[in-house]
Specification:
alpha/beta, CBS-domain, seven-stranded mixed sheet, four-stranded mixed sheet, 10 helices, metalloprotease, Peptidase_M50, metal ion binding
Amino acid sequence: MTTRAPAMEPEESGHGVRIARIGGVPVYLAPSWFVIAVVIVAIVAWPVLQTRPLFGLAVGLTQALLLLVSVLVHEGAHALAARAYGMHVLRIVANVWGGHTSFQAPRGTPGPMAAVAAAGPLANAALALVSFAALQATSGEVSGRVFTGLLIINGSLAVLNILPGMPLDGGQVLESLVWKLTGDRNKGSVAAGWTGRGVAVLVVLWFIGRPLLRGEGVGLGPDSIWALVIGSILWTGASESIRRGQALASLGGVTVADIMEPAVFLPPDTPVGAAISHPDAVVTTDERGVPCLVLLSATGQTPVDIDPSAPLSSAVTRVPDENVVETRPEAGIERVLGAIQATGVPAVVLTSGGQPYGVAHARLVNAALSRN
């Protein structure tokens, strides 16, 4: 569902520089993206830096922009697929490791989740085929370099991301498949995590083990360094998938009701004194109408030394949009834990039909787990 952006939007920090808004979805360049851009320019320009420096820099910048375009096509496909299944897309971020699309799936099921995951690699594969066709039809040096770059980048993104291991898109497809077959998403997370570890090992062996099998020495060249970096990232993401799946499986019958305190909704202009008098947590809306402003109860460290006549909006804590979770009290706590882990913010506003009814907190999660 597409919503019209308000005339004045709150500042969003931590995502980088906003470069566009596509279909209402903000697109950001994380600061780390500029690191990979500089690396690409340096690698591409170095061979011709002495003889054709301007040409080398131009080609390097072009390659960096082609990578950005390819990543945004990949993430845009995720966003469109999520939208098609009625999921709320929060943002697209391009960073040093590619990018990610943040979206909310209140009632995620295996089929839609697999389709959203597969959309990215499929979009890159389609762009690679278009680039290949265009390359056959062109003869210019500049256009040839552009289409060759697009072909290599998108072909690589498609192949790498469809590999069946977490944290790659193919791993999410595998997770959904196991989820569908067993009815247990946590088993899917563990299975995709183990295959992700296997993929990480294979990536390192492909770039480092092959030269050894051919009797060649292995140095710390660019290929070896990138293989170790990518392998490390894949291993870490796969291990996190295993840990998360095993941890969630151990939660047993813990429900949202076990980790929340009731909340009351009050308008933003309510005096702080009136809000603090409530025994429950207090939730109000921001300028967009999103219930992401929280005044916790006394057990949740309510702000002190605040003028009782001040408006509620001046004493609240803003939680990220990801921490406003649509769920039911009797539901499992996976989505609540996912929000806390993704943002590092311990409080989650719980809504039903868009209306807040409670606030979950990491301290209540820990208490429930200690009793379980």
